[in-house]
Amino acid sequence: MVKQTIQIFARVKPTVRKQPQGIYSIEEDEKLPTSLEIIVPRDLADGFVNNKRESYKFKFQRIFDQDANQEIVFENIAKPVAESVLAGYNGTIFAYGQTGSGKTFTITGGAERYSDRGIIPRTLSYIFEQLQKDSSKIYTTHISYLEIYNECGYDLLDPRHEASGLEDLPKVTILEDPDQNIHLKNLSLHQATTEEEALNLLFLGDTNRMIAETPMNQASTRSHCIFTIHLTSKQPGCATVRHAKLHLVDLAGSERVAKTGVGGQLLTEAKYINLSLHYLEQVIIALSEKHRLHIPYRNSMMTSVLRDSLGGNCMTTMIATLSLEKRNIDESISTCRFAQRVALIKNEAVLNEEVDPRLEIARLQKEIQELKDELAIVTGEMRTEALTEAELLQLEKLITAFLEDQDPESRLEVGADMRKIHYCFHHLKKILNDKKIHGSTVGLSEIKGQECQEPLREEYKKLQGILQQRDNEINILVNMLKKEKKKAQDALHLSSMNRSESRHSQSSPVPHGGNLEGSRTLLSSTPTTAQDSSLSSYRPSLLHRKTGMREEMSLGRQEAFEIFKRDHADSVTIEDNKQILKQRFSEAKALAESINEARSKIGISENIALPKMQDPLEEKLRSQVEEEKKRYKTMFKHLKALKVEIEHLQLIMDKAKVKLQKEFEDWWTEEATTLQDQQANSPAVNFLDHRTPSFQMPESQHREPLLLPNRSNVNIRKILPSPCLIQPSQEESSLSASLENSAPDRPASSIPLTGDRQTDSDILAFIKARQNVLQRKCLGSN
Ligand SMILES: Nc1ncnc2c1ncn2[C@@H]1O[C@H](COP(=O)(O)OP(=O)(O)OP(=O)(O)O)[C@@H](O)[C@H]1O
């Protein structure tokens, strides 16, 4: 049992603007920054009057200042907890702080750079690395991801449900058994056999979380999220199984209702958040008071779920995230005060061991049989009748298996039957004699030579096995690279076709998002388990399903999406990541080539027949092979790390894409609704009238004004034909005239639209295509 108080750490978020000097200071204790002093400026009126205290001091296990990166935070906070989870103890890390103070950044990570990976992906990486190293135990890992919003639990990982809102996700409820153990009904557990599978689950949960967000429910801010790694370990042949859980918790923003200044639905949410955080505080106060018999865990879902983590069987760590800007000082002080109370809670973590009943029954049955046999021998219970043919045959088989078994501990089990025991001795003697007769024809020197060669052969066999394994791995990686290259070429070909199509024909809408999809090949072509491949294939369709986008967009919508994408604030990050991804791919390719080279060298050396006796040539050969093997291993490790990075980057890009599409859909729907309202009084739409309201980008993403008139979203000015020298047909002339007339400097003409969004888009797409045909005719005749 390990008795420990909850460990508290503080992390200060980098400030955007320059803050007044001396708003806080960090003192070192035994070379570690452990004491934080917050100085309240004298002019600060909100909440702190001048005659109040000016400075507040708080102690932490360690404080991470603005310049601390994600790696340092992981190494110092999460790694020790992950180690105790690997040893069989429960662990919890939770981030607490006001909205925007960096909880999600610390727990999950930033969505822009690979180096911004937070505690969850780094912990997964670390745990799977350790599991791979430890071959003494059999491990199984499961993942669950729970979101608690307004006191209701939702399963973020159920792939059976297509969520477009939080209410579509399966609801999770709490059940308590007579021993007061908490069970979460409807929370799915997913096995992850590799880091990649676990990261896919994290991605799936985060995407569901993002999709479920609406402007009314900024889930990330207003909900608590608990990502749990369930680890089971067992030693082969041993009936004891160890279970450990690691909760990684991103709590809702801790600001007070008064400060949020919200009403309606948001006020309800704020109250729920405040209530659940209030209950968390109540539990913590109760736990920090000695001799308190009743701890009010049951008051809220979050405290019920984290019951063990707070004052129970768990190694718990809290990260107080602080945004030490002038306007956030009061919230930062209250976060620190909360942390000080948390630090008083003592937990008693025990190894969660239990005996697997099936293994225990088998062990006991064996023991009973052995005891019965012993008893039969001791009591002299003898059988005299002769053994049957079948029994003799069975015994011979047992003897053969016993002789062939390489395990020195293996036993020949024939039971307490002296007839069988005698027959076994008799049969063994026969085998030995037969061997002796045959053996005499073999020369003594040859036997000696064979003895020398035996270990060499074994070593050679082992190396060949490893080589075969690595060969397979390299083939898989090379195939992945080839596929990626082909995909990139296809994408290039497709985009050039699209460009020429949009210039000349504009006849068929292009499926959206092709440019990002290309990068998925590596992931989807990676050999994984059935479950993983189902997840990988789930992801691309998730982009459509979850954002509610159709697989194919109308031409107008496609054009609007392209412009929206181009002007979106995230486009620079997406481009940057694409570049990094490309770079990593070429690095991986180069590395794969070097690995192939090293492998062939090892192969050549191993193909040379080894001399029968050890000699200098063999020694040289051996050391060369060893050298190559070392080089090969290092490169292979590097390639694996690159693969993880590439996969992570792809996940980041997928996430950005889902976000982009979702924002586009929201914006599109909003604009369409507004215009529908405006057009309700006049069914005919004024095509290019400047008075017609144009689509506007959301404020934050707006760089250039978009000229996308009415719901069709087609920029007609872009598609107007250039002056033409040939005479168009009558039909073409009238169509052309109707469009020409709609130019801003001419009297506006109207094109009747149906009011149905899709039909209108199609009508306008048709007009656009016709215009292009006209334009091409013009160009052709010129
Ligand atoms: N240590 C840090 N370094 C760089 N950027 C950070 C850091 N901490 C937070 N940020 C950035 O600040 C912003 C807000 O952070 P984050 O979303 O993690 O806050 P939060 O506390 O989780 O907020 P919420 O309660 O709304 O979920 C994000 O853009 C994030 O990238």
Automatic annotation (TrEMBL):
<keyword id="KW-0067">ATP-binding</keyword>
<dbReference type="InterPro" id="IPR056524">
    <property type="entry name" value="KIF6/9_C"/>
</dbReference>
<feature type="binding site">
    <location>
        <begin position="97"/>
        <end position="104"/>
    </location>
    <ligand>
        <name>ATP</name>
    </ligand>
</feature>
<keyword id="KW-0206">Cytoskeleton</keyword>
<keyword id="KW-0547">Nucleotide-binding</keyword>
<dbReference type="InterPro" id="IPR001752">
    <property type="entry name" value="Kinesin_motor_dom"/>
</dbReference>
<dbReference type="InterPro" id="IPR027417">
    <property type="entry name" value="P-loop_NTPase"/>
</dbReference>
<protein>
    <recommendedName>
        <fullName>Kinesin-like protein</fullName>
    </recommendedName>
</protein>
<keyword id="KW-0963">Cytoplasm</keyword>
<feature type="region of interest" description="Disordered">
    <location>
        <begin position="730"/>
        <end position="756"/>
    </location>
</feature>
<dbReference type="InterPro" id="IPR036961">
    <property type="entry name" value="Kinesin_motor_dom_sf"/>
</dbReference>
<keyword id="KW-0505">Motor protein</keyword>
<dbReference type="InterPro" id="IPR027640">
    <property type="entry name" value="Kinesin-like_fam"/>
</dbReference>
<feature type="compositionally biased region" description="Polar residues">
    <location>
        <begin position="521"/>
        <end position="539"/>
    </location>
</feature>
<feature type="compositionally biased region" description="Polar residues">
    <location>
        <begin position="495"/>
        <end position="509"/>
    </location>
</feature>
<comment type="similarity">
    <text>Belongs to the TRAFAC class myosin-kinesin ATPase superfamily. Kinesin family.</text>
</comment>
<keyword id="KW-0493">Microtubule</keyword>
<feature type="domain" description="Kinesin motor">
    <location>
        <begin position="5"/>
        <end position="345"/>
    </location>
</feature>
<feature type="compositionally biased region" description="Low complexity">
    <location>
        <begin position="730"/>
        <end position="744"/>
    </location>
</feature>
<dbReference type="Pfam" id="PF23735">
    <property type="entry name" value="KIF9"/>
</dbReference>
<feature type="region of interest" description="Disordered">
    <location>
        <begin position="488"/>
        <end position="550"/>
    </location>
</feature>
<dbReference type="Pfam" id="PF00225">
    <property type="entry name" value="Kinesin"/>
</dbReference>
<dbReference type="InterPro" id="IPR019821">
    <property type="entry name" value="Kinesin_motor_CS"/>
</dbReference>
